[in-house]
Amino acid sequence: MNSGDSSAGGGGDEALKEAREAFINHWGAMGSAWGINRTMAQIHALLFTATEPMSTDGIMAELQISRGNANTNLRELASWGLIRSVMIRGERKEHFEAEKDVWKMFCLIARERKRREVSPTVEVLEECRQRTRGLRTAESRQFARQMKEIGDFLRLGETLLEKAVAMEESKAVALARKLFR
Amino acid sequence: MNSGDSSAGGGGDEALKEAREAFINHWGAMGSAWGINRTMAQIHALLFTATEPMSTDGIMAELQISRGNANTNLRELASWGLIRSVMIRGERKEHFEAEKDVWKMFCLIARERKRREVSPTVEVLEECRQRTRGLRTAESRQFARQMKEIGDFLRLGETLLEKAVAMEESKAVALARKLFR
DNA sequence: CATATTTTTCAGTATTTACTGAAAACGGCT
DNA sequence: AGCCGTTTTCAGTAAATACTGAAAAATATG
Fold it and tell me: I want to staple A47 with a disulfide (CB 3.0 to 4.6 A). Which of A98, A177, B3, B111 is the partner?
């Protein structure tokens, strides 16, 4: 009973450390694929799986990154509401902890992406539509219709998310399950 | 009645051209924000708003890009199913047209992102969970639980999308509207 | 208020990602 | 087979993005 067994002792800590590292790395890669800076996603994963709030220095050490990098991405994560700074008594350094509730996390991301990307897109589409609305060529009419169709789709999506995000997780999940039993 | 009026003639064509360009640019920027290469998104927008299928050369000229760049991104768009190549009689060059139905477009993107990103993530999470499952420390238990929670959330999302994507647009929209009247 | 500690900023640099263009490969045609 | 128009590939390069580290600014301490 030693290295193959994962139920106790140093081997267990090792397994946890490795699994956590795998998660942090994968979360970083996923961030990249979805237009989020890899480091920002890694810091998020690190804090999400941390049991205690961490200082900037702790994060720098863990992820082997510079102070500037850590600071920038911590501020960005805070601006999304995904982490918050907490003061630890007896410590002067700022410490950070992540929102641990997956549903709340999802709501924060949805809200922010809507605000930063979807809504501005809806505006551009509407503007494109208005600019070509009076035109009478077949091309213009088709274009204006397409702008309307994407706009309608995005607005419907926005509404759905708004409603979902306003719900308790349990309600939302129950609804989802009922819908597609 | 001249430049200010947008209802007919050359001014109208100009307005359409400008609006279309604005759409293409914005679509490209949105692509970037969501982890999709800007040029790929621009080609998509170009074909989406085109009335006729376009050749690689046409696309190169319109977006001022090289043949290699155009070719790569056209193949990538085709691999997502967002465009298809069509043969034009009398022409030897390959021509491309985009899926114009917004709901179908959404379904294609959802399916592809699920396949490429969400499902692999679910697998990693499951693996992380398994690797720490036997451990008995508080940290390990919390970590394993977190992996399960994200995994459950993503799987539920996958299921919902699968079902939605299997529906007709009209049904899906009707359902959405009913849900949140 | 002088000093120590922490945080922010940002010019310079490194890394990653995307693009070009020319050569090679392909595919039809005679 | 040999030619010709088309598409693909990919080494080299450009552009975009992310990161470092040290200096400046802010904040706390006695």
Answer: A98
Please give the DSSP secondary-structure letter assigned to residue A137.
Answer: S
Determine the pLDDT at residue B5.
42
Examine residue B130 and state whether it is found in any structural domain, yes or no.
Answer: yes
Domain region containing B125: 102-179
The neighbour count for residue B52, using CB atoms within 10 Å, is 10
Instruction: Tell me the average pLDDT across A77-85.
Output: 98
Domain with residue B82: its CATH number is 1.10.10.10
Q: A92 burial class (0-12, 13-18, 19+ CB within 10 angstroms)?
A: exposed
Shared domain for A111 and A73, answered yes or no, is no
Tokens at A134, concatenated: 């009076």
Q: Give the phi and the psi of residue B98 in degrees, each rounded to 5.
A: -95, 155
Whether residue B135 is contained in a domain is answered as: yes
**B25: Cβ under 7 Å from strand D?**
no
A136/B8 touch (CB, cutoff 8 Å), yes or no: yes
Q: Which helix (H) or strand (E) holds B128?
A: helix B119-131
**Which of the listed residues A98, A118, A140 is the one where a domain comes to its end?**
A98
- Which nucleotide's C1' is closest to B38 (Cα)? C18
Same domain assignment for residues A14 and A93: yes
The closest CB to that of B117, out of A30, A48, A159, belongs to A30
- What are the Cα distances from residue A35, in Å, to A43, B21, B174? 15, 23, 31
b/e per residue A58-67 (b: at least 16 CB within 10 A): bbbebbebee
Q: Of B77, B98, B119, which marks where a domain is finished?
A: B98
User: What pLDDT is attached to residue A176?
Assistant: 86
What's the structural domain count of chain A?
2
pLDDT in tens, B111-162: 999 999 999 999 999 999 999 999 999 999 999 999 999 999 999 999 999 9
Residue-level length of chain B: 181
